[in-house]
Design brief:
disordered N terminus, globular
Length: about 700
Amino acid sequence: MKKLAHLIGLLCATAVSAQEPPSQPASSHSGWWNGNPSFVVPIREVSVTARRPMKEIGVQQTKLDTTVLHENIALSMADVLTFNTSIFVKQYGRATLSTVAFRGTSPSHTQVTWNGMRINSPMLGMTDFSMIPSYFIDDATLLHGTSSVNMTGGGLGGAVALSTRPAETRGFNMQYVQGIGSFSTFDEFLRLTYGSDRWQTSTRVVYSSSSNDFRYRNYNKKMNIYDDDRNIIGTYYPVERNKCGDFHDLHVLQEAYYNTGRGDRLGLQAWYIHSRRGVPMLNVDYRSDTEYRNEQCEQTFRSILSWDHWRKNYKIGARAGYIHTRQTYDFSQDKGNGDWAEMIRSRSFVNTLYGSVEGEYYIGKKWLFTANVSVHQHFVKSKDRNVLELNSQSIAQGNNKKVVVGYDQGRIELSGYVSAKWMPADRLGLSFALREEMFGSEWTPVIPAFFADYTISKRGNVVAKASVSRNYRFPSLNDLYFLPGGNPGLNSEKGVAYEAGLSFAVGKEGAYTLSGSASWYDQHIDDWILWLPTAKGFFSPVNIKKVHAYGVEIRADLAASLTRELKINLNGTFSWAPSINEGEPMSPADRSVGKQLPYEPEYSATATGRLSWRSWGLLYQFCYYSERYTMSSNDITLTGRLTPYLMSNLSLEKGLSLRWADLTLKGTVNNLFNEEYLSVLSRPMPRMNAEFFIGIKPKWGTKKR
């Protein structure tokens, strides 16, 4: 009975979630493949001590390490977050818009930074994670709920911090990976690095292309079967191909770092994107793909210059950045005689200037003071170059001209942050933060946040955490100025959030580590912005809803050395995230009050298992999303509900060591069980498909530090 109780306790602990991944891998069986993150399962050394990073007092976060981020070159950050975190990833199809949402909030409630600079679109307020190759990110941290106030404002759901870091190499190094997959998909990755005592430089290039013409069964179309007398004798759902979904994406990332050797480091990161993507046809569209053209293109350049200065008790830093984005969307239709009618010619130009200054100061081992000031200046032009006829009088006068529909606006966004963190005892940590923000000429009230944690047991590193904060989010530029439909009179969204949780970490050096965390949260958001149809035939945003989002997040991590050569790593997450509309009914017929918000799953879960033996690596990934409603009334109609789905991926990797290079061979099967599913209504998703990768690292007499 006692053994059974121990087993149940271990299983429960595994179901409870974990803290950040190991910062340093423990030594393991020697071999060339130990430098390849695909084959290394880190076994973290667990020190039983109450001393923990003061920056993380009371913080609920999820950290993704290089092993997860650099799984294969075909993955975007949307794919990584889908299988490794508890947040909801909403995908409009393969290589199309992919957004993330924390805890039942909307994608615009998730703030995203890259090396400290916010990269949310000032037009839409959200970030497309399908446009972020995971191979371009070295560290990714998710700050849940109240914890996002420590990084930026406006993250009513949370924040995602993405960053790069020096390669830490000596001499010249090269890595090249070629991927070939289903649907004529080709992925290529090249990285060149150079390192010395002072310099670290890195050049990364990713190119992906695909015809993306996968087959799917279209359950939105029903075809009849006729006999010779034209009587209907049966029906079936046709198998169709994804149309107009081809894409070509190019990403180039250049980094350079210089260490003065006197506690200063200068850095440069420059990221260029050139993307051309067809917008796939809906599965309710009966037209041929030769009858129209539907294409979206993007060119984006992001760059950051940084300076960091370290001393024993303090650190200061400054950053300056620039973002330029040109987005085009063209929709043309064949008139039937070979001429094309341009229905939509949308052109958007975004220029953003960024600057920030930050500092940290320690007083002994009990106090840490931090401060940060950042500014983003946006300049946005959005135009639709449709040809519109003027009134009859203007036409009679010969003034039939092109009328530009759109807006040209600029907005400055200023954010200031100060915090004091105090550890009066080894077991207790307290943190108080204040943030103030300005958007245009409007200021938010002061945004306070309070965090606390307490070590209940040093033996198991059992820590209790709690936090409370307010937060505000200003409307996006499209919310305010989009034509037609923008609403300049919108109020800022505002919320109050409460959070509490437990975490633990146990283990034996070189043998195993088991860690986990569970958190409960409760959040009330007022003046929720929602786009609704108007009597004039277009949509317009209004402050309509009061939303109550609450729930539980659980995570667990287990890493173990079964033998000297056989290692296993198991990770799992679970989320229960009700997000309920508690606003007033808009009309007597409004049945949305008290219902789950559209496209927000109430339950989600992920699981990952990694097994490595010598130069072999096996990876299994699983994710689950519960049903999502497409209507605010939660009506279960023909199109009012998206069914739950399970997704599984499996990959097998083998390493080869040659005299002149290290090679890796990898095969991946996506959607292993051939699941038929939709993430968004009428947007088909691919069924089972495969990819194969070959990677090469020449040996030039250099090695990692």
